[in-house]
């Protein structure tokens, strides 16, 4: 790709040239730059199909990490993006506002979880990525406590196996083992980690599950600004589904001890779990909610941290007289415009029925894997299907097989999981699940059907 003065970038490299320059110079997520892991050059993507530069077509099982709800290259999203581009791609948010932010705010206010017994979530901070949304939430909690005169409260509590992003404070509340807190020990703030709730999503609530949190808050509440949780579904930290009752009990304890309750819905938001937000599996609301990933339907990076009038007001009456954060690309108009269009698309389609269908089909079609000797457990919630293996997978072996069979699935650790775009057809989903199970059968020499 050469950009000359009078020449437009063609964005059209020879495959080998691209792979070579990538291999020599470009980092990938959680990867060694000296990796000899397989790397695939993508030419384009359309609907549920990803086309590699070598012509191979893959059915997308990942939604580009929870994000691409409506698949790729969606005509309606493209159209809105082009209309916004023709107005402006970006403008600073200090001193300016714009239609794109206003329209997205109207939509979020309409769809955010509501509950007459709790203050509305209606003060929105638009940031640039999920990790930043988490940083913003944590700063809000600390500024709030500080403004209330609770100046010793600067720590956070969370549960093990969580994932909240890769920036410093977000990382400090990720699982300490998978987040390698040992490695970063001297630069990471030390937080309080509670056991992962034992009561799984469909199980009968075990009251002892909340005891560790009750004990921690009773003992250490004067140090703790906030409790941060991924409601119901723990994503990248373990793909685990736990009882919503845990969240309701946590709400009571946070109220009792003056702790800010933060729900990180960056992965779970926008229908993925079968509810528009996983919070809706509970009878409560958090004090702060973080959104990201699917917010723009997977088009651009954008996140939102939303809190209540009370918290916003307390922060703004505090020492700083303002909330201390303001990214360059705050409320990026292009991203906001696409986010509005993505929400419209979601609501215009009967997403609940669609997710139910995906859930039923995943349950049915992944079930045979539960009998594999190599498999620990199969679990499904909404449009998320997880095959937990007994041992960590060998990605170098597994990935090429999956691609060969025409599907894009990206396992990590012991987790082989799929979360396809909601627009996937039932025959495409069948191809995805059967290719996935066939691959596991081959790699692990599983017998049976
Ligand atoms: C992905 C994720 C994040 C981080 O979002 P980025 O956009 O990757 O920074 C935070 N929390 C949860 C629950 C996530 O799944």
Automatic annotation (TrEMBL):
Gene3D superfamilies: Aspartate Aminotransferase, domain 1 (3.90.1150.10), Type I PLP-dependent aspartate aminotransferase-like (Major domain) (3.40.640.10). Its EC number is 2.6.1.62. The keyword S-adenosyl-L-methionine applies. It catalyses: (8S)-8-amino-7-oxononanoate + S-adenosyl-L-methionine = S-adenosyl-4-methylsulfanyl-2-oxobutanoate + (7R,8S)-7,8-diammoniononanoate. CDD domains: OAT_like (cd00610). InterPro entries: Aminotrans_3, Aminotrans_3_PPA_site, BioA, PyrdxlP-dep_Trfase, PyrdxlP-dep_Trfase_major, PyrdxlP-dep_Trfase_small. Keywords: Aminotransferase, Biotin biosynthesis, Cytoplasm, Pyridoxal phosphate, S-adenosyl-L-methionine, Transferase. Pyridoxal 5'-phosphate binds at residues 130-131, 264, 327-328. Homodimer. Catalyzes the transfer of the alpha-amino group from S-adenosyl-L-methionine (SAM) to 7-keto-8-aminopelargonic acid (KAPA) to form 7,8-diaminopelargonic acid (DAPA). It is the only aminotransferase known to utilize SAM as an amino donor. This is Adenosylmethionine-8-amino-7-oxononanoate aminotransferase. It comes from Lonepinella koalarum.
